[in-house]
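Run folding on both entries below.
>entry_1
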Amino acid sequence: MTIRLNAVHHIAIICTNYDVSKQFYTDVLGLQIIREVYRVERDSFKLDLALNNRYIVELFSFPDPAQRPSRPEAAGLRHLAFEVDNLDEVIVELERNGVTAESIRIDEFTGKRFTFIADPDGLPLEFYEK
């Protein structure tokens, strides 16, 4: 018997500057806030975010979180990828918000275009054209 998975439930991200990351994920990327709570016992915020009304990201703040390598080629979780309809429009909007995208790459197997940016903590985020 194999495990039956239904979907990815959420991705948890720990940020170093909660206000900056909250602004980035909501104002720049346009994720919608489901709920925001402050957990006194952990001195931590937890922000639940949705994409197209589907819960997808938990954004956490913790005092002095440990650093970890976050380049797309580092060992561990490689990156978070978002599907987009028009990569050129996304890049223009990112630049309008002061976010620089790397050069567009072409997926050698699908022929689709994609690019990477870094979130405020350097987490690699990919935008993959549908």
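>entry_2
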Amino acid sequence: MLNQNQLDAIDHAIETHLIAAGIDHVIYMEMSGNTIAKHDNGKTRLDSTAFAALAAGNFAAVDAMAKLVGESEFSLLFHKGEKLSIHFSKVSNDTLLVSMFNKDISLGIVRLKVAVAIKEIIQVLADPDIP
């Protein structure tokens, strides 16, 4: 269970590293599909509850496929669309960070910013007394 200081620090990491970089929508969620944090740029409309449930199922299916081909996991997924793309990244055994972005931002920038945000989130998860 995360405390309010941890939740605030996670929100700050998402806002600072992802939303400020131009990512449209970010969901930090449990693998079960429960949303821990969600942020957007104010221009998107998304049923984040339904999306998180579907994202959890998608990640679980890909995890099962990884095991079938002899991998312990695929910790990163990417779906490219005509207008929007979705980047899934495993943060911990229990959590997933999903970032949705449009064609105006490159995948390289997204991967870089997600890596920085995940590093910060992992530090927050490790320290329940984070200010």
